Amino acid sequence: MKILFVTPTKPWPPTTGTNQRTHLLLKALSNCGDVDIALTQNEVEVTQTDLPPERVHWIGQGLAAGDVFPWRTLAALSSRWANRVAATIGAPISLYRRDPILAAGVADLVSSHGFDVIVGRYGTTSVRAGLLDYTPVVVDVDDLVSNSFSNRAASPGSGALKKPILRALGHRLRAVERRRFGGAALWTASEYDQTALDLPNTRVLPNIPFSPAEQPFPPSSSTTILAVATLSYGPNANGIEWFVRDVWPSIRTSVPEAAFRIVGKGMNDQQRLRWAAVDGVEPVGYVDDLADEYRQCAFTVAPVFEGAGTKIKVLESLAFGRACLTTLHAYEGFRGHLRDRESLLVADERGFPSAALELLTDAGFRDKIADRGFATIASRYTYDAFSAIVEETITEVTRAGTLGGVRPAPPSR
After folding, report:
1. Which residues contact 196 (CB under 8 A, 6 or more apart)?
2. pLDDT for residue 402
3. What's residue 23's pLDDT?
4. Cα–Cα distance, 395 to 225 (Å, whole number)
């Protein structure tokens, strides 16, 4: 079987949650057949790859949001502002509009390679690259963009004037998504997104820890709270900022020896200086040995109030045997399998300080959550389960393989 995997994110190196899911998908798809990967990026040097060079294709980034009508009229004044306005106000147009450059790149590959199935990483990329012009096709929706806008409306950082605009954009995007994806086989990262889409042929393909420990780390007597995140991603940075500003002072007052370590790629100089000025906060940034950070901490926090998909660092923490305190927003992606106060701890804005103090000062409660969380991850969020869903889906959509592989889709799409 020949598979075309179209993605905006490289699977190498798998150092972020986004790249890790892409890497895992490539690995699982490779169990189904021979995979060519088409990257919707401009070509860069890749030193770490699981594929021969002839099966790695670069088809470019396509048009920027501000390059299409009606936003391109602003580009004459400022391309930066044109892109920002298009990505915010014109989201349904800019994010789910077919891109002629990307679509032409995919068409060239389809006509010259004779693929049996196409898999698209992200719904937006699948639409922009014209993947829904073909069948059979599987779309890894992953982050549902409509939920991203709706969640931003509910975030504590959104002002009163922004909230109704964001809610309206979320509602409009949901209608676009249902219309665009109606004829494809879909994967979502959670039951929450699956329910929101409410479309047939949708299966949950959950995020999983990339390199889980075989055994949980032993309990720690540490008073260090850990946050692991890609800090160039707005929802992560906003959540850390909120925790340092609104939660950390009360924790430090109650437990003066407590420390808050912030670990992850993408920390800029302004963030580092601002957070380092707060007593007890340790803005570390990227580390080579992430496992050691989990080993040395008491528990982790995932203070995320916006975004879409599921928060992989919640799973990663539990997979290392460390309890995690997270928000109601982040919990939505795990509600089906993880239980509040049993396998993780969930709190709203007002309850976050007291919940953090409970985990910090009650080692027995903290260890109980860590043990149950690890057991749930080890039984439900595994690569074998992930790979089985991928293989079952590919088998189902290609079962009509007698029809001759990838071909134009019916015009209803």
Report:
1. 144, 146, 147, 174
2. 47
3. 97
4. 44
Comparing CA positions, the residue from 373, 366, 209, 213 lying closest to residue 297 is 366
* Rounded distance between C-alpha atoms, residue 303 and residue 247, angstroms: 10
Alpha carbons 310 and 371: distance in angstroms, whole number: 21
Cis check for the bond before 53: say yes or no (omega within 30 of 0).
Answer: no
Q: Does residue 138 contact residue 391 with C-beta atoms inside 8 Å? A: no
Are 262 and 231 spatial neighbours (Cβ–Cβ below 8 Å)?
yes
Q: How many CA atoms lie within 13 A of 370 on its CB side?
A: 26
One-letter amino acid for residue 409 of the chain: A
190 CB burial (10 A radius; 0-12, 13-18, 19+): buried
Phi, psi torsion values for 71, nearest 5 degrees: -75, -20
Query: Cα Rg for the chain, rounded, in angstroms?
Result: 22
The answer to whether 338 touches 373, Cβ cutoff 8 Å, is: yes
Residue found under tokens 């009650």: 362
pTM, to two decimals: 0.92
**What angle in degrees, to the nearest 10, is found between the helix axes of 383-397 and 17-30?**
60
Q: Which parts of the chain register pLDDT below 50?
A: 402, 413
Cis status of the peptide bond prior to 256, with omega within 30 of 0: no
pLDDT of residue 247: 98
How far the first Cα of the chain sits from its last, in Å, is 25
Token pair of 300 as six digits: 């982790």
3-class secondary-structure state, position 260: strand
Tokens of 244: 């340092």
**Domain assignments of the chain as residue spans, ordered by start:** 2-62+99-208+383-408, 224-380
User: Measured between alpha carbons, how far is 373 from 184 in angstroms, rounded to an integer?
Assistant: 34
Between 3.50.50.60, 3.40.50.2000, 3.40.50.300, 3.30.70.100, what CATH number should domain 224-380 receive? 3.40.50.2000
**Is cis: bond before 13, omega within 30 of 0?**
yes
**What is the CATH number that goes with domain 2-62+99-208+383-408?**
3.40.50.2000
* φ, ψ at 132 (rounded to 5°): -80, 0
